[in-house]
Amino acid sequence: MKLFLDSANLEEIREVASWGVLDGVTTNPSLCSKETVTFEDNIRAICAVCPGPVSAECVSLRAADIVVEARALAGIAPNIAVKIPVCLEGLKATKTLHGEGIAVNMTLVFSSGQALLAAKAGARFVSPFIGRLDDVSEDGMALIEEIVQIFENFRFETEVIVASVRHPRHVIEAALLGADIATVPYGVMEKLVKHPLTDIGIERFLADWRKVKT
Ligand code: E4P
Fold first, then answer.
1. What's the pTM?
2. From CA 69, how far away is CA 57, in angstroms rounded?
3. Structural domain includes residue 214
């Protein structure tokens, strides 16, 4: 399973890259709005740190405009995946961009029907937002199960990015269901490595080591 960092913060991205677990990065307008450098400079710097796919989101709403914006984003670095919200105009743009060899991450996916159409239009990735579904009392992980099954049934090459991840169990459940990727916020990434018994164990071993004759 691949792990992407859901962040536009270069320091966080560098830090997780140094752990040896970073396979890609996803950004969105909300994440980018928290950064002080310009959007394009930030995305270029992220692409230099992360060799895997880096998602940068289009904000145009008409297919023709999305295509122009996506081409410009894809020109920033070879590892850019353009993020496009799933909608009819987004599907049309995805078809064109797929034909040009530009990787599309179809985002804001909340149903398996949307994921199916995105895959058929040629999206390289789909991003179902499970946390936001859980927030409105729906079952985000059930959506992942459906999409993974549908893509397996028809051998779609489109990869499932489990997005809007809120806690470590989301990552583990996504892995158990065979999702290709989870995009994980920095705080959740830290929680994945932490366990109180590990901390206690280290403390005890260090205390005992001090009693060892050397
Ligand atoms: C994914 O690509 C999105 O950037 C992200 O996971 C959205 O998460 P949120 O629901 O926490 O905003």
1. 0.96
2. 9
3. no
Q: What's the confidence (pLDDT) of residue 163? A: 98
Query: What is the domain-level CATH number for residue 11?
Result: 3.20.20.70
pLDDT score recorded for residue 178:
98
For the segment 119-140, what is each residue's pLDDT rounded down to a tens digit? Answer: 999 999 999 999 999 999 999 9
Please, are residues 49 and 79 in contact by the beta-carbon 8 Å criterion?
no
- Work out whether strand 159-162 and strand 181-184 pair parallel, antiparallel, or are unpaired: parallel
Residue 171's domain comprises: 2-209
| Pocket test residue of 9, 28, 86 for ligand 1, highest count of atoms within 8 A of CB | 28
- Please tell me the distance between residue 166's alpha carbon and the centre of ligand 1 in angstroms: 9
Ligand 1 atom closest to 163 (CA)? 6
Helix (H, G, I), strand (E, B) or coil at 190: helix
Q: Output the CA 162–ligand 1 centroid distance in Å.
A: 9
Q: For 56-87, what is each residue's pLDDT tens digit?
A: 999 999 999 999 999 999 999 999 999 999 99
Total domains present in the chain: 1
Tell me which amino acid residue 140 is. Answer: G
Helix 140-153 × helix 112-121 angle, to 10°: 40
CA dist., res. 36 & res. 133, Å (int): 30
